[in-house]
Amino acid sequence: MIRTERLLLRKPQLDDDLAEFVADDAVQRWIGGPEDPAALIERWVGRWERNGVGPFLVELDGRLIGRVGFIVWDNRTWETSTYDLAGAHAETELGWAILSSHWANGYATEAARAAREWIERDRIISLIDPANVRSKRVAEKLGARPTERVTTPHAEADVWVHP
Ligand SMILES: CC(C)(COP(=O)(O)OP(=O)(O)OC[C@H]1O[C@@H](n2cnc3c(N)ncnc32)[C@H](O)[C@@H]1OP(=O)(O)O)[C@@H](O)C(=O)NCCC(=O)NCCS
Question: How many Cβ atoms are within 10 Å of 132's Cβ, its own excluded?
Answer without folding.
Answer: 17
